[in-house]
Write a structure and sequence with these properties.
Bound molecules: zinc ion
Largest sheet: 13 strands, mixed
Strand content: 25-35%
Order of helices and strands: HHEEEEEEEEEEHEHEEEEHE
CATH topology: Carbonic Anhydrase II
CATH class: Alpha Beta
GO cellular component, one term: cytoplasm
CATH architecture: Roll
Distance between the termini: 65 Å
Protein name: Alpha-carbonic anhydrase domain-containing protein
Number of helices: 5
GO molecular function, one term: zinc ion binding
Number of strands: 16
InterPro entries: CA_dom, CA_dom_sf, Carbonic_anhydrase_a-class
Keywords: Signal
Radius of gyration: 18 Å
Helix content: 10-25%
């Protein structure tokens, strides 16, 4: 009885256990997810925004092929690079307030951010932490600790992105295996997940889009979407959660801007 009451109290205080969240119990997501004022994702009102010109971001080692693992986290497909001791993946310069290490790439289906209320089929997140923090967990507690690059994707009947093919080919191996990373059959280039030609982006301060929804995250949402074919989209998103239910969509609804500024950045 004691235990049961304690469980109820904890549940009331904290909402759901952070590990137990899903996209069907959004109203029970913990803490700042409910009370924060700088949450993500947001709708980006593209038209009429004034461009700001800045120096270019440098993507260090992004053009190289890297060995990597993929895993089914129970919420998404996550890619981690395993050769960062030799070839650290770092973004720096331009608008960035420091040097940031690539922690992981993962995906959402449909897109989390929207442009003028248009939702795209898919969104890729490249999550980075401040180099001197040493880890994502520590960076989340620091000012300017985390930068997420976000790239939307739309369905194209012919054209796709090489990185999506490589990952799609391996997802079946982790579809029902939670939190057990496996080596990707081939190497991949982080550059593949970024727009090739036009890297203008929208910049704002938001949060992680999954519990605990920690705020203070710098979001760079690229204006140019990447193409993805239906076949890659289908394979890449065919994973199951801890209850063996297929994850049919994995985006959080649009959050209120609450007076935040979104900047439109073009690099020169
Ligand atoms: Zn994400």
């Amino acid at each position: 009885m004691m235990k049961f009451s304690l469980f109820i109290v904890l549940k009331i205080l904290n909402g759901v256990n952070p590990a137990d969240w899903d996209y069907h119990n959004l109203g029970e997501w913990p803490r700042v997810c409910q009370t924060g004022h700088s949450q993500s994702p947001i709708d980006i009102k593209k038209w009429g925004m004034k461009k700001e010109f800045t120096q270019m971001i440098h993507y260090h080692n992004f053009e190289r092929s890297h060995s990597a693992t993929i895993s089914n986290t129970g919420h998404t497909v996550e890619v981690r690079f395993t050769d960062q001791n030799r070839y650290p993946l770092i973004i720096k310069n331009g608008i960035l307030p420091g040097e940031y290490v690539l922690d992981n790439i993962h995906f959402h289906w449909g897109s989390e951010h929207t442009f003028n209320n248009k939702r795209y089929a898919f969104e890729t997140h490249l999550v980075h932490y401040l180099r001197q923090a040493g880890s994502l967990a520590r960076a989340l507690q620091m000012e300017n600790g985390v930068v997420v690059l976000a790239v939307l994707s739309e369905i194209h009947h012919r054209d796709t992105t090489q990185g999506f093919i490589e990952i799609a080919n391996s997802v079946a191996n982790v579809a029902r295996r939670l939190e057990q990373p496996i080596s990707l059959g081939s190497t991949i280039c982080p550059d593949d997940f970024l727009p090739k030609y036009n890297r203008d982006f929208f910049l704002y301060r938001g949060s992680l889009t999954t519990p605990n929804c920690t705020e203070g995250v710098h979001w760079l949402v690229y204006e140019q979407p990447l193409n993805i074919r239906n076949s890659e989209l289908d394979s890449l998103t065919k994973i199951y959660d801890k209850n063996s239910n297929e994850i049919t969509q994995s985006y959080r609804p649009i959050q209120n801007l609450n007076g935040r500024t979104v900047r439109y950045i073009c690099e020169i």
